[in-house]
Specification:
Its main location: membrane. By secondary structure, the protein is an alpha+beta fold. It is built from 2 helices and 9 strands.
Length: about 210
């Protein structure tokens, strides 16, 4: 009987061995990154909520505490021209308005101020004023100038009123201030408010300007 040869063991062929399979390792880098992102997001949410709560408390405090109201007064008014012909109003009106901030710790940012002049509920004058900041316990003076001509239709009672006031030389003119303001307390500023202030009971005399020639 001939000898039978056995084949190579352990999968070896021609003297070369097959390495055992490798088992992959799971990395913890992804989980650590997720935890950091979640923590950062939570901190951002908490900070934002805290800021909103603080701003809300400040606004409520400004609204409900006994703040001294800002006081406006028309100090000087000069009307040198107010003629109405062919549905055109020609006018020259100047006025000074004082604004008093009586508060001790609150400043006011006047981000936008629009001045308007009305006659018989029709606007004939407009002026945009320069924004400014008013500190606490401070008085500022606004210089208004309305000069030019504007289409203005007067009929019926409005025309009758104009003719009567032309005879008396005393005209009923209303002034209006439309503003966008922010209150400032320390380094904190509120959202913008849009107050509107009206002076609709002005009786302004027409001042005649005389010229002297030498």
């Amino acid at each position: 009987m001939g000898d039978q040869k056995q084949g190579p063991l352990n999968g070896a062929s021609n003297g070369t061995s097959i390495p055992p399979p490798k088992h992959g390792r799971r990395s913890g880098r992804g989980s650590r990154c997720g935890c950091c992102c979640l923590l950062k997001f939570l901190c951002t949410v908490i900070f934002t909520v805290a800021m909103l709560i603080g701003l809300f408390i400040l606004i409520v405090w400004l609204i409900f505490r006994p703040i001294n109201r800002v006081k406006l007064h028309v100090t000087d008014v000069v009307l040198t021209q107010f003629n109405h012909t062919d549905n055109i109003l020609r006018f020259n009106l100047a006025a000074n308005i004082s604004i008093r901030n009586p508060n001790k710790k609150i400043g006011i940012h006047y981000d936008r101020i629009e001045a308007k002049a009305f006659y018989v509920d029709q606007r004939f004058g407009y002026q945009a004023l320069t924004p400014f900041y008013q500190g606490h316990k401070n008085t500022s003076v606004l210089n208004l100038v309305f000069k030019g001509q504007q289409p203005l239709t007067l009929q019926g009672e409005d025309l009758t009123q104009f003719n009567q006031e032309k005879t008396s030389g005393l005209y009923s003119i209303a002034l209006e201030l439309s503003m966008r303001i922010r209150f400032k307390l320390g380094k904190v500023k509120t959202v913008r408010f849009r107050p509107k202030m009206e002076c609709d009971d002005l009786k302004i005399p027409l001042k005649q300007i005389s010229c002297c020639w030498e």
